[in-house]
């Protein structure tokens, strides 16, 4: 338990920030799962449509500090490569 007023405030702030980060991380994971599902389903049209929104979501999460920029680059690269390979076939 916090012993100071400032420590109590920090606990409240941390709880709020954890909730926001959890919500944003969940939205990101859902968006990535939608794209991966369309990739594994060999659905090139849906994958092409979902890719820009997913990449945009990844970039937003980097800006919010939910995801590291190198991890985001890795996700974007791999997902784009899969969609490109799918549409080339």
Structural notes for this entry:
This protein has 89 residues and is mainly alpha-helical. It has one domain: Methane Monooxygenase Hydroxylase, Chain G, domain 1 (Up-down Bundle), CATH 1.20.58. 87% of the residues lie in helices and 0% in strands. It has 3 helices and no strands. The radius of gyration is 18 Å and the shape is elongated. It starts with a helix and ends with a helix.
Q: Could you give the count of β-strands?
A: 0
CATH topology: Methane Monooxygenase Hydroxylase, Chain G, domain 1
SS summary, helix count = 3
Radius of gyration: 18 Å
The CATH class name reads Mainly Alpha
- The tally of domains stands at 1
Main β-sheet description:
none
Report the sheet-strand fraction: under 5%
| Average pLDDT over all residues | 95
Helix content: over 70%
Spans of at least 5 consecutive residues with low confidence: none
Q: Just name the CATH architecture.
A: Up-down Bundle
């Amino acid at each position: 338990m916090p012993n100071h007023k400032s420590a109590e405030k920090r606990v409240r702030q941390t709880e709020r920030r954890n909730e926001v980060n959890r919500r944003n991380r969940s939205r990101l994971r859902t968006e990535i799962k939608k794209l991966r599902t369309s990739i594994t389903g060999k659905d090139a049209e849906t994958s092409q449509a979902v890719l820009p929104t997913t990449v945009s979501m990844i970039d937003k999460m980097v800006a919010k500090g939910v995801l590291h920029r190198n991890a985001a680059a890795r996700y974007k690269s791999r997902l784009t490569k899969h969609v490109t390979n799918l549409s080339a076939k």
